[in-house]
Sequence to fold (692 residues):
Amino acid sequence: MFDGLHDIDWSSMGHAYGTAEEIPALLTALRSPDADERAKALDRYYGAVHHQGDVYEATTVSLPFLLELAGDDTTPDRAEVVRLLVSIAGTSVERCDNEYVGDVDYAGAAAALRARAEAFVEWASDDDLRVRRAAVPALGLLIEDARWAMAVLRERLASESGVVERLLVLDAAAELVLRRPEAKDEATEWFATLAADEEAGSVTRLAAVVQRARCAPQDIDDEVVPTAIALLRESAGEAVPEETWADPSRPETPTAPTDGVPPQVVAAFEDLDRQGRVHAPTTGLLRAFHDALAGRVPERTALIEEQLRGPELGSRLDAIRMSADLMKGWRGDHTRLILLVAEQLDAPHPDVVAEAAAVLDACHVIAEPAREALAALVDSQRAAHGPDVWTTERRRLRRAHQEAVRALTRLGDLRAVPSLLVALDSGVDAWRAVEVAGAVPQGADRLVPRLCELLRGIDPRQEWVDMSAGALVTALVRLGDPAAVPTLVDTLARATRHGQGSAIARPVLKALGTFGTTAASALEAIRPLTGSSDGQVRTAAVAALWEIGRDPGEVLPLLRELLADDVWYSATGAADVLGRIGRPAAPALPRLRELLDHDYEWVRVHCAAAIWDIHGETESDTVLEVLLGAWRQNQATAGFVVACLDRMGRAARPALSSLRSELERPARDWLLGIEKDEQLQRAARALLARLT
Fold:
């Protein structure tokens, strides 16, 4: 086995983390009798040679050896090798027709795997159930002859009785249609026949309805979702034991040490792991159905309602996550969905409760209808498990309580404050409380002293210090209590002394600026930083100097120096301050006008807004042209642009069509996120009402 493996010059090729010299050792380790060694090698291959789906020349060169492993019945974890090959096939086939620069080789890998399509056909009927499951998706990816592919898929469905296997076959058929449109007529007719076949079983029929919708979304009519819901309800009575559908997990590799890694980072990876888990065999199918339904918010809400009403906790857990995808991805009235998720706070399993609360936290900007349900849950947890339930050693209960407290806090509800105080006083997961504490300014008298104490306790020399310090500073800004100013000034001095400019000094300078003239005691520490060699610190210091000192004569020369800088953030920061200064900043207008031709749209919009704020209506045509042009180029500028249009008042009337188009757009922009998108919609509606 592996003839010629060591004859290849692996060092001449690369992967995500350097040269590919380690590939022979990884391939050899995949045959090791040691399960832990195999798991480590597989994880490393995914992480480096197939990093985030990428396919390099080295990946392609290693394919013959992976195929050799997959074809050998004595290979341990053979199904995992087949699954790896199918993963490489998925990204390679998807991207092989595009041109890329760099070391990627999607076209080469796709060609190599298509040439071995017959091997995947063979593995799709293997005696090993896990190998079959791993291989079936390749039937829709790698077989170029659509008629042959359909014949193989029909045969596989007739031969399989397991839920997962049948779902995989029908999913592969839909993937085939999406890749090879000539298969559409035969596949959709097959799906229609299966959907009507009462002998096929409710899950298979549901899959046929969904996959037909995926292949022809334009043909989704008013009956498709009710039909799917009826089949989903029927399938709920046919519980599928987990051991019959869930592949056994491969041996876990040792957890990477977390010493010195911020808890926020550890938690983020834990959350990614949770998001990747599937708790019901139909979850993948229903996610595909939601994707096909896209912006049909009422229909998708009805589907999720049925999913949440089901008896299986696992199905409900997956449905809660789908509800988050819908609300974060699509606009609309989500009140009903918020209430449905809030109902899950009464679930008997803490994982379901925690997931529901986490969704309400993530969607807090529209979660007001869930306020009382969240408050009731927090109160009941404290009553049943004690006021210190935030710190309980029962891991699932702790997460459920913390997520509920965070969601309630984001709604600005004082009933969350007792648990926040427990977190800050005990230090147990205090960072979770810090992240949301700024949402309850009415609790500032109790929160600010504790947050200041934590900020004073931070060593600016520590690694990752910007994460903890940044969150504390942000919370203090949002609480808005001037009592925080002395601590912020002290933090600024310590950060400067230890060379933590961009990491700590910059956010602290921005924070001090928000307190305005009440932070006058900070001026002595701020002035020296207006000459900092760190451009971001210098920009923030000049901005803070204006907000606190309010002396145009002192600040304008510094701002004009920043405008002359070629760095984009210096120009945008200076433009913002000049706009706030207003008419006294008129000497900067010539340079601001020059920057309207800048290559970066963010520089253009900041300078255009500053010109309006300084010079007013005489500049309206030019300002509008720049603002609307940047908005068309980059949707992420929308919030900034609409805020400037709002200041322009009736001079912004030429933007009416852009405002209407924005409000007619059904999908949220992923760069904005749900909170900024909701703010954008509110601002656009209010401005539209003023102008019409």
